[in-house]
Sequence to fold (218 residues):
Amino acid sequence: MRDRWPEVVAAAKRVVADCPSLCQSACVDCLLHFRNSYYHRHLNRHTALDRLEEWGETLDFTHDIPPRLPTPTAEEVPVNDPELTLRAMLVRAGLHGFQPQRSIDLGRPLGATTPDFFYEPRNDAYEGLCIYLDGMGRHLHGRPETRERDRDIREGLRNRGYEVVEIQFGQLTDPDAMRQHFFRIGRFLLGKDAAQRIRDDSSWYGAPVVETEQASEG
Fold:
């Protein structure tokens, strides 16, 4: 791509300049597709064309881009599996006892939901803790009715006394965001003091390692 950058720029210009539907901003014939559904409201082919014209066809090196997560060794869980990445972080932070893919039946009309990780209640204040990892293929919903259903289900969980933590897939590489999420999880499971220690000492954040025990079954 770097060696053929002028061709890449030319192809990008054709996409945004020659929309078959001559749309006002963006449509399925030019910029909109399933993978970028979270960003549809921000896309504008005319803005894109202006930027491509402004930036030109040259590509100059300025600096290396360091990895946000270390490259795993053969003994480590691949970081391209988001659920295993999150699972390893939970284990290293001492947040044991989770159940992956635990189904919860909310009855009619909501039906069943399956959080990525579930914790049994630790006190009478909650029915349990549900963690959803959003933004991956099976969570990335472009249809408004599907997003509304997800929202209704999670609101239904909260109304029934469940604590719900929603982690965006992209936040797995954002240590500050993960510290805040883990503070919420830790406060539910271990109390405020322990949760603050987890937030302030984020040594649990990093490349996931293979677990040798079935910690998820608590």
Notes: The first strand starts at residue 99 and ends at 100. Residues 72-80, 138-142, 207-218 have pLDDT under 50 and may be disordered.
